[in-house]
Design a protein that fits this description.
alpha/beta, 8-stranded mixed sheet, 19 helices, 16 strands
């Protein structure tokens, strides 16, 4: 070069580097996506991929970028799972602090999938072996191109015209009723007015608005006075954590208790997967289904089931087999003076310890003691709301040394159903006339699914909210027969309607009871379930879920 050359020095070009270990990250996610175990947000993953591939001149900048991308990769991996938004987990933090250490360890263990860990180890060995000869970044980019092409095709299809928004049918629909066994598991049918087709976000939002608007018009009229000449009691047994799916998983579908009932609802939707909201919905059973937020606003007096019973001369009472402190359950049911302070057997030895360490008393012992008090009461008619948490997740059995051990759900469920059957025997021997109503709050989510680990109930999926509701008349003159099965998609409104019909007639004094007529044309309610920030709704037999402000997505089956 000449001493007189004044051209500027040549700048080093930024260097393109491969993805390195990030190849394993993206390939693993793509494999999970291909097998249906994970979602894959193409745009966000492409954004992270581009940020990692963008050429940088200095090596130290490249290494710093690798480190800074780790939290983004972790957050994106959680975003691509089926689990609820992380904000919902933070919102539940206060409740987690109340859980016992043993229960927290149990929950942590459920997040560990040993089969998936084994598959991950095999994948890691295969990746390390192949990366010796193959440029893995090329394969990652090729896989991205394939997934992105499919995503763009789906996006273009989403822009095509769709049918007008369907409106979920909310009026009374003829229910299918027959007599049968408890073994059948019919599929819930959502009633829609328009033909099928994949809905967009706006359609589903409008359908939900229309559903709640239609439900505001639904109500049940109660008689001016109870039918018959002889007084009777109404016992509503609210059971935490019992669904048809739980009974099936525990091999208890054919428990004799259900054969002793007069009516069994096969497709009853509890409309929520949390206890407090379930009891609040039960208390408002005489009106149509409301949104989650509306539950915390005062409703018309005629909507409240026990207010209607009180107007008919029933003395309303409550009893619990727990202290009612968790999540302010006791405050919820006694708010506005709708219930007096419940009977709680504090003077007795607990049968279990709850997930938060509080005592749980035996169901048969608690019910028998309440019944003893009831028989000493001269009230002509009593309506009881009994709530049990015997089946709640995380309950433990006390041991002789003062400690506790895990209590399997199946054994607790078997004891509970046996206890209820024994209590029916006690009621039968008393010679009194009683209407017994079994209404589980929600299921226990024993098996979990792609979006929720076992025991998680953040999303009110059908397997959690489809619960075994049943009615039995004790002391009626008519002989007991096999239970009538109501197959229509129903909820609390149908139960309230049936109770109103039973209260209006002289059912206890009739030589025979026409259950087919009593259960005919019960109001059906389309399958919509809601927790705080989470809604699940059927669209042509396909459940869609909306979490927070996120768009609706099909619930993974």
């Amino acid at each position: 070069m000449s001493d007189h050359d004044t051209s500027p020095p040549v700048q080093a070009q930024p260097r393109w580097r491969g993805l390195g270990w990030w190849n394993a990250y993206f390939i693993a996610k793509l494999l999970l996506y291909a097998t249906g175990r994970m979602q894959f947000d193409v745009y966000l993953n492409l954004l992270l991929l581009a940020a990692l591939l963008f050429p940088l001149q200095r090596l130290w900048r490249h290494r710093l970028r690798q480190v800074l991308a780790i939290p983004a990769g972790v957050a994106l991996a959680y975003h691509d799972t089926w689990y609820p938004p992380f904000s919902r987990l933070i919102a539940q933090g206060g409740e987690l602090l109340q859980f016992s250490n043993a229960y927290l360890l149990e929950l942590l263990g459920r997040f560990i999938n040993w089969d998936l860990i084994g598959a991950g180890f095999i994948f890691l060995v295969a990746y390390l072996f192949l990366s010796q000869w193959l440029r893995m970044t090329v394969f990652t980019l090729a896989a991205f191109a394939w997934v992105s092409a499919g995503s763009l095709t789906g996006f273009s299809l989403a822009l095509s015209p769709l049918p007008a928004p369907a409106v979920l049918a909310a009026g009374p629909v003829a229910a299918s009723v027959d007599r049968g066994t408890t073994g059948a598991l019919p599929v819930a049918q959502a009633q829609v007015a328009a033909p099928g087709g994949k809905p967009d976000n706006q359609q589903l939002n409008q359908t939900l608005v229309d559903f709640y608007a239609a439900q505001k018009e639904q109500t049940v009229a109660y008689p001016a006075a109870p039918g018959g000449t002889q007084p009777f009691d109404v016992l509503v047994l609210s059971i935490c954590s019992l669904s048809w799916a739980d009974l099936q998983a525990s091999n208890l579908m054919d428990h004799p208790l259900f054969q002793r009932m007069d009516v069994v609802f096969d497709q009853f939707n509890s409309a929520t997967s949390y206890s407090g909201q379930a009891v609040m919905r039960l208390m408002r059973a005489s009106c149509g289904q409301t949104s989650h937020q509306a539950l915390y606003q005062p409703g018309p007096d005629h909507c409240y089931l026990f207010d209607n019973l009180q107007a008919l001369g029933f003395k309303t009472e409550t009893a619990l087999n727990h202290n009612g402190q968790f999540e302010g359950f006791l405050d919820e049911i006694t708010r506005s003076g709708r219930f007096a302070t419940p009977y709680i057997p504090n003077d007795r030895k607990p049968a279990l310890r709850a997930f938060d360490g509080s005592p749980i008393w035996g169901d048969l012992d608690t019910l028998n003691q309440w019944w003893k008090n009831r028989q000493a009461d001269d009230a002509g008619r009593v309506a009881l709301l009994y709530n049990t948490i015997t089946l709640h997740d995380g309950n433990r059995e006390p041991t002789a040394d003062g400690a506790s051990r895990a209590s399997p759900f199946e054994s607790r469920a078997s004891v509970l159903l046996d206890s209820l059957a024994a209590f029916l025997d006690e009621l039968q021997r008393s010679g009194r006339k009683i209407m017994v109503v079994i209404v589980p709050e929600h299921g226990a989510a024993l098996q979990g699914d792609r979006m929720q680990i076992p025991g998680m109930r953040e999303i009110p999926s059908p397997s959690i909210t489809r619960v075994p509701v049943a009615v039995r008349l004790i002391g009626a003159q008519a002989p007991h027969q096999a239970p009538v099965r109501v197959h229509g998609t129903t909820s609390y409104l149908a139960l309230s309607q049936l109770m109103s019909r039973l209260l209006a007639g002289q059912v206890f004094e009739q030589p025979s009871i026409d259950w087919q007529t009593l259960t005919a044309d019960l109001p059906q309610t389309p399958w919509v379930s809601e927790n705080d920030g989470t809604v699940l709704m059927d669209w042509h037999d396909v459940p869609y879920v909306r979490m927070g402000q996120s768009p609706w997505i099909p619930y993974p089956q």
